[in-house]
Design goal:
7 helices; DUF6042; globular; DUF6042 family protein; about 170 residues; mainly alpha; three-stranded antiparallel beta sheet; 3 strands
């Protein structure tokens, strides 16, 4: 984006750039997702649960498409894979007996993230609604109303805080 676009965008949005705002300005092609540049630099890839990371592009597309809350949930539910949600409960699974080191590493990562979320009063996601609620609770997204008065969601592109500023414990 050229300097003029950046200056114009900052003026129009009061310095806050969102997926819905970019879409309304015609700056996101249909079906495209936008992920904040600072996503990984800000630590989001480190502390965001795997379901949230894998579903983030679909969330971005739903926001850019102008979907309301129910449409966003429905759109994302259609993209869920059988292994999207990780059961971290004991339920008879021997955590030490994973044959695949990658699976074990993922399980350990997600367990650490679940503990970090719990310390901060948040829940590890077990459903699409949980994923969306976590985006909102962490400040990556927020609820708003569309022109028809229906609840919809928007996603922050800039400025995106560091996740350590949100997950303080």
């Amino acid at each position: 984006m050229c300097s003029f676009h950046n200056d114009a965008l900052n003026f129009i949005t009061n310095g806050r750039v969102t997926v819905r705002g970019l879409s309304q300005l015609g700056l996101i092609p249909k079906g495209q997702c936008v992920i904040p540049n600072q996503f990984y630099e800000g630590g989001w890839g480190r502390w965001l649960p795997m379901p949230n990371i894998t579903l983030l592009p679909y969330f971005s597309v739903s926001v850019a498409s102008g979907f309301n809350w129910a449409e966003t949930v429905g759109f994302m539910e259609k993209r869920v894979k059988p292994n999207t949600f990780i059961d971290l409960g004991n339920n008879g699974v021997d955590k030490r007996n994973h044959e695949d080191d990658e699976v074990q590493s993922l399980y350990e990562r997600e367990t650490e993230i679940e503990q970090k979320l719990q310390i901060n009063g948040l829940l590890y996601p077990k459903s699409i609604v949980d994923v969306i609620d976590l985006y909102v609770a962490l400040g990556l997204a927020f609820k708003t109303e569309d022109q028809q008065g229906k609840w919809c969601l928007d996603m922050i592109i800039r400025p995106l805080c560091k996740i350590d500023e949100v997950l303080i414990n």
